[in-house]
Amino acid sequence: MDDSSLTIDLIGELKAAIADDFTRQARRFGCRYADLRLEVVESQYAWAENGNSKGSGKDDALAFGIRVIAGDGISAPGYYGQSLGAADRARLARVIREGLRHAHERAIANARGKSAAMAAFPSLATAFWNTRLAPAPVHRDTVPAVFEVDPRSVPLADIVALTREISSAVKATAPVIAFNAIAALTQISRELFVSTEGALIDQAFALTQGTCYVVAQDGTVTQELTDAVGHQRGWEVLSRGVQDPPGAPMLSFPDFRTFATTLAGDAVRLTRARPAPTTEGEVTVVTDPHFTALLAHEIIGHPTELDRALKMETGYAGRSWLLRSLDETQVGKQIASPLVTAFSDPALPGFGQYRYDHEGVPARRVIHIDRGIFQDFMNSRQTAAIFGGEPNGHCKATDPSLIPLIRMSNTVFAPGDRDPRDIIKEIDHGYYLVGHRTPSIAESRENFRISAMKVYEIRNGELGQLFRDGGIMADSQAYLTQVDAVGTDFRLIPIPNCGKGQPMQTKRVGNGGPTLRSRAILTGSTE
């Protein structure tokens, strides 16, 4: 490897030296605790519009982030992060040392600021926390990427050709297709985590994603649909599709061409559909796994992130109705039907799969709701020290140069024991919502409005008329409490654009669940 190259092999070549130097320097500075995150990414991408290639390229990225906890008496954190390039490879050790110095100086300044504020405002002294991390096991491990077709081995020309061919196929679906954009990405990344506690974790990930955006216009009716397929695997994700695990897949979708043309066909059909009505009150509603996925994301995932619940994000992301204060929480209380169980599990396949988070904590399943009773939050080591409990491995950053936040892994509703067809057959009149589109959620996630790709009327146990531009609106707890049927058809859906933080960190996660039946207000178009 020459000094100008930038590949994921850099981690393997330098990790021992980087770890030794980082821990030695952190001790020299007198840090109570320090950790380093270093990542190299190799990616290829292309996109096309209306059958014409619009752009493509290869990108290599290198970035690191450092956290230090330090201070005399009261302690505080200090962070430093930086995005680098191939030219920085030769001076990487020096750059990391300089970053450690900056992070340590910031921690010391924060600790002194806390002490000064406590002295100046004694009545507020209890509002200042001594920064602590809950104990976590220390691991030294190497986790390889999983793929059949190495993302680095795919000729860029093949990626360009696929997006152009699929875009042409979408355009040819029907004359009413006014616009489409097809994008494909395949990449491999490698992350190194080092801590002064002795952790040394080397994780690699493959990732491949395809995105389809289509606009159909028939007269005055316009329909815009967008959806994505993806997995932490190689190029085979788009060329062949995914069935994971084989035989009884939780994550399942066809090859990218079939996926995109199917979405285009839905857009065409929706231009001919009537706008959905708005009901005066609650009606029986059934959601398919794709719609259920966004419900899980918005009313289970985000409100169970403990940094949000502890008001650390109130200014830019809201709070959580599950925790009003440390003395007033929903833990141990009935918040849903006994048929409802929900959890986050990084062991499930898809975008949310990983073995260790960005604090080096082993990832594990967190039960949020157990048969209707609220149980627990996703946490970090710092929030676990505040709220109590063990760290559960859900602290992640989109990029090492950014501060890790508490993020969803695969947050889902658990499957039930009902045949989805029987769930619909029992309904005299109601609505079936297929596919999710756009969420609108209250600041504390206590109520929601989510639109669907398609809405079908249910009459006498049969699917009837197709409607467009519809969705449901409900109080979150009331909706969960009224769930009276849960299907066996559990599915995971890739979510490519979960946003959180300031500056914004957009992360890929997994969400899902089975068919659910509950009650809500059907919301329709203003036409």
Structural class, by secondary structure, is alpha+beta
Mean pLDDT: 95
Shape: globular
Number of helices: 11
**Main beta sheet strand tally, sense and closure:** 7 strands, mixed
Terminal residue distance? 63 Å
Q: Unreliable stretches, pLDDT < 50, 5 or more residues?
A: none
What is this entry, summarized?
The protein is of the alpha+beta class and 527 residues long. Helix content is 24%, strand content 38%.
Q: Layout of helices and strands, plus pairs?
A:
Blueprint: H1 9-29, E1 33-49, E2 52-70, E3 76-84, H2 92-120, E4 140-143, H3 156-171, E5 177-195, E6 200-218, E7 221-231, H4 236-239, E8 242-244, E9 251-253, H5 256-271, E10 274-275, E11 282-287, H6 289-301, H7 306-309, H8 314-317, E12 323-325, E13 328-329, E14 342-344, E15 366-370, E16 373-374, H9 381-387, E17 395-396, E18 405-406, E19 410-413, H10 420-425, E20 429-441, E21 447-459, E22 462-468, E23 471-475, H11 476-481, E24 485-486, E25 491-500, E26 505-513, E27 516-523
Parallel strand pairs: 4-6, 10-22, 11-20, 19-26
Antiparallel strand pairs: 1-2, 1-5, 2-3, 5-6, 6-7, 8-9, 11-27, 12-13, 14-15, 14-19, 15-16, 17-18, 20-21, 21-22, 21-23, 23-27, 24-27, 25-26
3D architecture notes:
With 527 residues, the protein is α+β, with helices and mostly antiparallel strands. It is built from eleven helices and 27 strands. The strands form six sheets. Strands 1, 2, 3, 4, 5, 6 and 7 form a seven-stranded mixed sheet that branches. Strands 16-15-14-19-26-25 form a six-stranded mixed sheet, covered by helices on one side. A five-stranded mixed beta barrel has the order 11-20-21-23-27. α3 (156-171) runs parallel beside α5. It is globular, with a radius of gyration of 24 Å. The N and C termini lie far apart (63 Å).
